[in-house]
Amino acid sequence: MSIFLCFVLLLPLFIIFLKNIKPSKWNLPPGPKALPIIGNLRNLQGALHLCLQNLSQKYGPVMLLRFGFVPRVIVTSKEAAEEVLKIHDLQCCSRPETAGIRMISYNCKDIGFAPYGEEWRLMRKISVVELFTAKKIQTFRHIREEENDVMVKKLSESASRRPTVNLKQAIFTSVASIVCRVGFGVNLHKCEFMDEDSISDVMHKMELIQTVPLFSDSFPGRVGRFVDWISGQKKRLGNLFSDVNTFNQNILDDHLKPGRKFVESSDIIDVMIDMIGKQDEDGDSFKLTTDHLRAMIGGIFTAGVSTSGITMVWAMTELIRNQRVMKKVQDEIRTTLGDKKERITEEDATKLHYFKLMVKETLRLHPPAPFLLPRETLSHVKIQGYDVPAKTQIFINAYAIARNPKYWEKPDEFNPDRFLDSSIDYKGLNFELIPFGSGRRICPGMATAISIMELGLLNLLYFFDWGLPEKDEGEEILTGNDDALDLVKIIRH
Question: Which domain of life is it from (predicted)?
Answer without folding.
Answer: Eukaryota
